[in-house]
From TrEMBL, chain A:
Residues covered by the RNA polymerase sigma-70 region domain: 17-79
Keywords recorded for this protein, A-Z: Sigma factor, Transcription, Transcription regulation
Name of this protein: RNA polymerase sigma-24 factor
Biological process per Gene Ontology, one example term: DNA-templated transcription initiation
Any Pfam family: Sigma70_r2
Highest taxon in the source lineage: Bacteria
PANTHER family on file: RNA POLYMERASE ECF-TYPE SIGMA FACTO (PTHR43133), RNA POLYMERASE SIGMA FACTOR FECI-RELATED (PTHR43133:SF63)
Amino acid sequence: MDHQARLRWFAREVLPHEPDLRKWLVGRLRGLGSCDVDEVVQEAYARLWTADSDSIRNARAYLFVTARHIVGEHVRRSRIVAIDLVADLDALNIVDEEMSVDRRLSGQEELARLHGILQTLPPKCREAFELKKFQDFSQRQIAEHMGIAESTVEKHLAKALRLVSEAMKQAPAGAEDGRRRERRFWKWG
Amino acid sequence: MSAGSGNGADIDARAAAWAVRSAERALDDREQRELDAWLTADSRHLGAYVRAQALWLDIDRAVALESGARRAVPPARARNWRPFAMAASLALVVLGGATAYDHLAGRVETGRSEVRHMVLEDGSTVTLNGDSAVQIRYDDKVRQVILRRGEASFEVAHNSERPFVVRAEGLDVRAVGTEFVVGIGAGGVEVTVEEGVVAVGGTASGSAAPRYIRRNEQFVAATTGPRKEVLDAADVERRIAWRKGLLVFNGQQLGDAAAEVNRYSDLRVTIDDPTLARAEFMGVFKLGDARAFAGAAASAFNGEVIRRGNELVLVRQQNSPSH
């Protein structure tokens, strides 16, 4: 896979599981001052990216297991082990097939979500973003259109991406039903 | 875009800036060097950068739908592990007070993948691990339990008039009111104290005077000589997780973990690759569920499970993640 194809794979197979991973991590990292959720996610992504994506058959399981190992490394380094961190039934079940239930939003839901997020962007930031992504303008064209410096356009776009990416850390409202249905499957005992 | 590690949010901001720029145009040499330096400074930077690039690219796909274009649905990915519908059987039997004692006049044994919980006439409890055997001998002066095989955990009802003694291969463990575990393993007899104090004596203790073992301490009457170790609370909890019908691994070597799992299962997990056997592993499993264990280990190390007769053979694939 070339770089773009790998990024697309990553966006399709890995990113949709991030809200779940974050939720799972929040519970695990409580009281573990030495690492936060962002750090674990970033570290996990770095490892996933460095691994051979062709050999990753279940990206969700791979992601969770990698994250769990990262947390474990922190735990062992800090030596303030709480048993509930590992004695976690959900953690065991992350490799269950039931977890692979498709929870992606439909295309239209995804687009609606993006529009929703765009509403929250500062006006200039949003304008630059819409020109870039919906009109396919270059940064130079956006600069001319908005009458601002190209470097300012880049800053707006970077800010827009950061805000969108921040919003994407949360699970979309539409995915809730799927999750609730799923939970029933992977609880045992 | 200066270098430096920063917190998660800072990293995300820098990653977003780099993702936007590198998607717009090819970076010049100076920028490329700056980006490379930033990426190598901390592996989290790479993770954040990959995430930002993937999101930035993926927005195009969402936006493309606006003009009515439908994306192709990607085919479902092949899976290498079929989960088994049934968890391995695990019997957790609770017997009631006096009835239990009559029943236990002789010997009590457990099979593999069986953990048995017993309440004795004085209110003390014994939990027998899989493939273990005890003999209970209570009289007016002493409450004696002989561990013949395997491992048992004791929660002793307080009675200073009538001490509670567990005997295992020449080792006497005497308690008044406490919780502890005695196990006979390949390395000798192990005594682990969860609560209170026990006095260890007998020929296998290596000393005439009793040794006192306290909470979160372990005494091992090893063939190479007795030793005492201090454990942390989590280690102790991990060691007794079997009482709840669980096996907990928190960074143990995969080979050791598999040996633990195999203790409770007729289906055995085998690891052919010695480097894989030394890899550190984390996870929680139901006792006896060798399939779940093998599946999780395969996922953790990007390996595969091959069924060979009564064995589940773990094989490593290339490019497994580092741990």
